[in-house]
Amino acid sequence: MALKPVTTPDVEAPTIELTVDGESVQARAGVSLYDVISQTGRIVPAMCYHYTFDPFGSCGMCLVMVEGKKAPVRSCTAKAEAGLIVRTEGDDLFAARKKAVEKHLTIHPLDCPVCDADGHCELQDMAFTHGVTNLVNPKPKGLPEDRRSLVLDFNMNRCILCGECINICKDVQMIDALQFFKKEGVTHVVAKGDNALECEFCGDCLAVCPVGAITNKYSKYIYKPWQLKKTVTTCGYCADGCQMHIEVSGRDVQRVTSPLSWKNKWGDRAETAEGHGGLCVLGRFGFQYIDSKERLAAPLVRTEDGLTPASWYDAINLVKDRLATIKAQHGPNAIAGLITARCTNEELYLFQKFMRVVIGTNQLDSSARYGHLNFVRAMQHAAGVGRMMSSYADITKAKVVLVIGADITETNPITGLRVKEALRVYGAKVVVADSTVTNIAKLGSHPLQIAPGGEGWFIKGLVKSVLDEDLVDEQAVSTAAPAFDALKQAAAGLSWESIIAGAGATKESIIEAAHIYAEAPRAVIICGHGVTQRANGYENILNLVDLAWVTGKLTKPGCGINDLPEEANEQGAVDMGVAPELLPGQASYADSEARAKVERAWKTALPSGSAASANLMEILERCRAGQIKALYLVGENPLATLPAGSGVREALEKLELLICQDPYLTETGRLAHVVLPVTTSAEKDGTFTDLQGKVNRVRQALELNEEVRPDWEIFAALGSLLGSPMDYEHPNAIQSEIMKLLPGYYNLGEARPLVARPEQYLANDYVREVATRYGAGAAPVPADRPFTLIMGQVLYHHGKLSTRASGLIQLYPNKGTLQMHPDDLARLQVEAKDGVRITSVHGSLEMRTEANANLAPGSCFFPEHFNEPPVKDLMDCIVDPTTGVPTFKLTRVAIEKIGSGKEGDRQVL
Ligand code: SF4
Ligand code: SF4
Ligand code: SF4
Ligand code: FES
Predict the structure, then answer these.
(1) I need a labelling partner for 249 at 20 to 30 A (CA). Which of 192, 200, 446, 447 fits?
(2) Distance between Cα 195 and ligand 4 center (Å)
(3) What's phi and psi for 197, nearest 5 deg?
(4) How far apart are CA 798 and CA 865, in angstroms?
């Protein structure tokens, strides 16, 4: 890297003193002079510089005078040096900058009236501030617009060749999809090879382009920037917590922009200095789900004619009457509730309070049960922490990042940028263990393709390596000698044959990874669905705790164990106590002191006894058994999520009352007795807690339809109707209540640092527990089902929500094809026109295939966002005995060629 950063966690650049406009300024030697000047509050014009990548020095705008130099100096490429005397203003500089603007305008058309950037254009601003009133020697290019990309149009008539788009794509995104390319004497920005742009469509190039040379197809010619109402809020897709600007006119969402833009190279830099400030394709181009025509516009109640529109008065009273009747006839435990972690903290809090206080049951759960609770429960149990341990800054500054079973650039692209930054800026070693050759594996220093589902074995192999290779931190283990002995004994019983067979990696590669991790002064572990959403997810995390503990990294600053929760507010769901085993603040429901505190605050006794408590899978079981008669689903769609073999349909069909509260009519909603239409996160106020524990504001960007209400309002109304007044007029009132119960939770701005406390665990339960964790050998691959079928996420989708966004469906439609390694396709002699029959113990279905060379041979993949064909119904559903987490995204299958596929082939046989 050229100029930035000069100070790293390992090397601190010396502080120097220089003078800017007569003011004495302190700076780190070697940083960009532009940065030093910006930090004094002065705004020097700049059109090609952006703090996220190295200075390019093309535009000639950032000129300053440095004493001793005859000509003005480009401050972005100049380094700060001790004793420099810098001047940033003056007629000479103004004239030089004006000349630069005039030069840019010679190759830029004055088509502002039809340009999307009109009113939000750096060149326009520069021309205005420098009083450029005449075009000097204009050379119009007369080029047709390049419309080959699905999302972005390139108008090279407007391009000033600043290079920002190319640089951010290469340096920050490390995708390198763009290049300068000379055609017929004119330099263009084109996709690599002058092809149609195929990239991750993060939109960073669009965001930093200082003019209207790159435009957004989804928002073109429908607004002028000043006509839009802009609301700063938090993205509702993944848990990265990106800040976004939803820009609307009337009831239409016109575009989403980000704090990252050409503007924040100076004034509002503080907003993005803590992070990248950009968005991924979901956040930037996946906004159409908000004002989708599929949104429900009124409540629906079941009549003889099916689901029929009803008034809110009728619908809510029906829900109230039927809940009251069921409770009176069968008791509170005949009712249960499930809520999505796409709701705000305030809604999640109110939901669990509603279920516990108004209904009087502890049968409640959230979508965090689908995996994140494996991580939280294991980390709470072993280390006393209930969320990801590392901050974004810790990831960036780690010397080693160990990525296990996490396709981070697909599931959490902006957290993925932190790993890229660690690689690119600080030269970190990045070890990636995954059965798929992921994007981060392609960039990482140590990519390791392991067996599908081999993550748990890889982790065990790391622990064994650390013990065998004596990579142990003596100080860390000395305080818990019996626990360490027990671990050594347990790991000694584990053979390398089992590890190699289970992990699908060589002994040498596992040992090498263990050395890299153990010997690093700062090492961060990031695990994803391949760890937490697998049958041994809870155990896998405990084994990672072993690894971090014995290498001295469990309590060491800058180190940490982290997972990537799926939905936007899974951490919030856990923190708000939406789980039968947890109270708000992650206190244990079984802890009498914690219960007493909540009971005092709520002035009521909490439900008690095992009959009153049930998690997701227990709730479905009780529905099937007829014990639970009414199920209240808030944004949850278990019919579309769980495999058929879990018995989810039988459970739902047995109910006397199924209430679905959702923005859309879902598969589960079609079975409901009452459907209540609710707002998305773009239409309500509240907060989300991101994966690093930071609480971010969610703000209402628009009101689409007054018949559609936020979830919290419905809980409050129902509570009051059922005799427990819930007088909240706004989410702020709920927030005040949470603040009293959980002081310090609303740490807006900063995630509270976590310190692991494993002492109790190592002293008490450990010796007994560890004995069983390293024992069994890898299950043999069944001879009649040699392939591993994996369902997982892709970049362009998130859960099922993104399938409602037309922009994302355009980028990644459901092709209904099974992705297989080309070698497997060749071995089975399957061509594109052919179908395959895929068979698991749960049934068969027929579908076409497509080649994906990134997969491990012997594995196949289908995106979990789509249910057509119903691949999920081939899956096993294995419930973790400790955490109740159901896992159902990996199974063994047979695949056979069935000849030319026809549309009608796609069905479960
Ligand atoms: S959208 Fe993102 S990935 Fe695609 S070219 Fe622009 S910066 Fe690169
Ligand atoms: S397209 Fe925009 S960002 Fe890219 S070089 Fe041209 S003006 Fe600069
Ligand atoms: S989906 Fe995640 S990474 Fe993408 S913009 Fe939203 S919060 Fe950021
Ligand atoms: S040359 Fe410095 S900002 Fe462009």
Answers:
(1) 200
(2) 29
(3) -65, 125
(4) 7
Phi-psi region of 596 (alpha: psi -120 to 50; beta: other; left: phi over 0): alpha
Give the whole-angstrom CA distance, residue 473 versus residue 512.
17
203 touches ligand 1 (CB under 6 Å): yes
Contact indicator for 479, 455 with CB cutoff of 8 Å: no
Provide the CB-side half-sphere exposure for 514 (13 A, CA): 27
The DSSP symbol for 781 reads P
Tell me the chain's radius of gyration from C-alpha atoms: 29
User: What single DSSP character describes residue 199?
Assistant: S
Residue whose C-alpha is closest to residue 854's, from 529, 458, 435, 530:
435
- State the Cα–Cα distance between residues 640 and 644, nearest whole angstrom: 9
* Pairwise CA distance, residues 402 & 387, whole Å: 18
Do the bridges between strand 674-677 and strand 657-662 make them parallel or antiparallel, or are there none, so unpaired?
Answer: parallel
752 vs 531: CA distance, rounded Å: 25
Instruction: List, for residues 728-775, the tens digit of each pLDDT value.
Output: 999 999 999 999 999 989 976 676 778 899 999 999 989 999 998 997
Question: Which helix (H) or strand (E) is 338 found in, with range?
Answer: strand 335-339
From 471, 402, 469, select the one nearest 430 (Cα to Cα). Answer: 402
Please report the sign of the dihedral spanned by the C-alpha atoms of residue 698, residue 703, residue 708, residue 714. positive
- Among 570, 563, 571, 567, smallest CA distance to 529 is for 563
Alpha-carbon distance of 199 to 12, in angstroms, equals 37
Residue type at 41?
G
Tokens of 422: 């660690």
Determine the Cα–Cα distance for residues 180 and 160; give it in Å rounded to an integer.
Answer: 12
Instruction: Report pLDDT for 1.
Output: 34
DSSP letter for each residue of 610-636: GGGEE-HHHHHHHHHTTS--EEEEES-
State how far the Cα of 115 lies from the Cα of 120, in Å rounded to an integer: 10
Residue 706: CA atoms inside 13 Å, Cβ hemisphere, count? Answer: 0
Q: Which of 44, 47, 79 gets mutated to test ligand 4 (max ligand atoms within 8 A of its CB)? A: 47
Q: How far is the CA of 102 from the centre of ligand 3 (A)?
A: 39
Instruction: Write the burial class of residue 769 (CB in 10 Å: 0-12 exposed, 13-18 middle, 19+ buried).
Output: middle
- Taking only the tens place, the pLDDT of each residue in 415-463 is 999 999 999 888 999 999 999 999 999 999 999 999 999 999 999 999 9
Task: Look up residue 135 and give its DSSP letter.
Answer: -
Ligand nearest to the CA of 799: 3
Per DSSP, helices labelled H in 753-811 are: 759-763, 766-773, 806-811
From 204, 215, 439, mutation site for ligand 1 pocket: most ligand atoms within 8 A of C-beta: 204
Distance CA 356, CA 580 (A): 10
Phi-psi region of 31 (alpha: psi -120 to 50; beta: other; left: phi over 0): beta
User: Residue 215: how many CA atoms within 13 Å on its side-chain side?
Assistant: 27
Alpha-carbon distance of 403 to 431, in angstroms, equals 6
Q: Please work out, in degrees rounded to the nearest 5, the angle formed at the alpha carbon of residue 235 by the alpha carbons of 233 and 239.
A: 130
Neighbours of 386 (CB within 10 A): 21
Query: What is the pTM for the complete model shown?
Result: 0.95
* Single-letter amino acid, residue 787: F
| Low-confidence spans in the chain with pLDDT less than 70 | 1-5, 266-274, 748-749, 751, 777-778, 900-909
Instruction: Report how far Cα 891 is from the mean position of its chain's Cα atoms.
Output: 25
Predicted local confidence at residue 907, as pLDDT: 41
Would you say the CB of residue 283 lies under 6 angstroms from ligand 3? yes
Dist. CA 379–CA 46, nearest whole Å? 47
Q: Find out whether the beta carbon of 300 lies less than 6 Å from any atom of ligand 1.
A: no
Question: Is any ligand 3 atom within 6 A of the Cβ of residue 240?
Answer: yes
- pLDDT computed for residue 905 by the predictor: 43
Closest by Cα among 347, 899, 373, 336 to 655: 336
**Amino acid identity, position 25:** V
Report d(CA 302, CA 5) in Å as an integer: 62
